[in-house]
Amino acid sequence: MSSDKSFPVSMSTYSPSLAGVIKQVEEQWGWFSDIKAFDETNSLRRGVTWMRESFEGAASATKALGAKMQATVEWAQRPSETRQRCWNQMLEYRRKYPGAIVGVFTALCLLPGIARKPSPRVLLRNMVIGGGVASTLLYPELVMRTAPYVMSKANQLEHEVGQRISR
């Protein structure tokens, strides 16, 4: 055995009956000395290097996968040209024909009242609520333009009702 792999205690200091045991320990000490060596043949070094490279490879693969997923999400959220063109056409139609669209929604709101027992109260209620909701949701600028007028009329009505009650 080489001097750097030998057991630190010589065999001559022990009794001859322990020679076999010392020989086994010396062989095991040689294996342990291999682990302590700092050259490329060191099994511990090879194992640690392999683990480190594996973790670095997994980390870089995870980062690449994350970047690819982010690019895919951004691509999926971007509207297509066809969708954008159709959306612009719908908005243009909405700007040109606001009365027709509110009328269609109001007519659709009348259908449940007609399907059941058609009574004037149900039809009027559905027409007012359906038409009002459609015009408010589709054309909020209409509400903003008419709000001051409606507010002044509401104040006027409140004042008249207050005078009638106080009499």
What does this structure look like?
The structure is a single chain. The protein is mainly α and 167 residues long. It contains 6 helices and no strands. Helix 4 runs antiparallel to helix 5. It starts with 18 loop residues before the first helix and ends with a helix. The mean pLDDT is 81.
- Cα-to-Cα separation, first versus last residue: 124 Å
Radius of gyration: 44 Å
By DSSP, the count of extended strands is 0
Helix content percent band: over 70%
| Number of DSSP helical runs | 6
Element order, helices and strands?
HHHHHH
- What share of residues are in beta strands? under 5%
Q: Unreliable stretches, pLDDT < 50, 5 or more residues?
A: none
Mean pLDDT: 81
Q: What structural category characterises the helix and strand content?
A: mainly alpha
Q: What kind of sheet is the major sheet?
A: none
Shape: rod-shaped
List the helices and strands and how they pair.
Layout: H1 19-36, H2 43-77, H3 81-96, H4 98-115, H5 120-138, H6 140-166
Helix pairs in contact: 4-5, 5-6
Main attributes of the structure:
167 residues; rod-shaped; mainly alpha
Sum this structure up briefly.
The chain is mainly alpha-helical. It has helices spanning 19-36, 43-77, 81-96, 98-115, 120-138, 140-166.
